Amino acid sequence: DENQTCICSPVLADEWTADVVKSIDALVGSCVVLPCTVSHPGTYLSTSRLRGIWHRKDKWTEYFYHEDSTKILDSFKDRTKLLGNLGQNNCTLEIVQVKDHDNGPFCFRVELVRKDNNEPTKEKFSFVEKCADIKMIHDVPKPKLGPIKTANPGKPYTLTCSVHHTCPSHRPQIKWSRENKDDEITEVHKPIHSGIWEAESILSFVPEEKDDESELICTATFNGGMKSEEKFTLNVKRIENYNHIIIPAVAVAATAVIFGLFCVLMVKKYNMWSRMSGLSRK
């Protein structure tokens, strides 16, 4: 019996190990990736010598994924595939078009196959102690914007929009409402922790004073077409106009100079008149 072969091989099973994400969120209608790594003792085994299978924990012949698609449960047909390469210890499972009933637990099994006829040998290992559960999410995750700060006209400004997701094979697409050809957009994709990734778009541009109070919108489109957005009102510092201070100050200064010159002329005129008056009395 296939099940007994796996259960009754504790010594061999201990030598084979698998690491599967324990629990993961999945957006209904999108896709989810269940990270999985498998390792074995001895020498390298090519992918052609290995067969990866994902099955129910309590019903090992109910397959979520099998290389023979006719054996896959009808509700999962054409929606699952292995990512990566079993020969490189990658047993990651992808599920697309996630549905509410895609409940597990999802368990991985590896089988060794014969070179001549591709039939499985008696070496089969199911890792039912490490299975993945999926928690269904119906609300589309909202992107996050930052850093929120005031812009200076004529100086470079950077704004980042990021969103977490569970499908690196079909990552969310992030778009900005600005359509300026001089803008620079950098995209970054990175893992956060097991089963969770972050898609990030970095917008760099040089704001002008006319951009003050303009609205920037970041829209994330997930696999399956679902969208969410975040808005931000840009504040641009205004260039101070000091004419209302400078012009009166200049006017006052000019008046003072003119008045000073007038006083000097009056003093000179007075002195000249005094000397002339003195001579006439003599």
From TrEMBL:
Keyword match Membrane: yes
Transmembrane segments: 245-267
Pfam families: ig
Alphabetized InterPro entries for the sequence: Ig-like_dom, Ig-like_dom_sf, Ig-like_fold, Ig_sub, Immunoglobulin_dom
Coiled-coil features, chain-numbered ranges: none
Keyword annotations: Immunoglobulin domain, Membrane, Transmembrane, Transmembrane helix
Residues annotated as domain Ig-like: 143-233
Listed name of the protein: Ig-like domain-containing protein
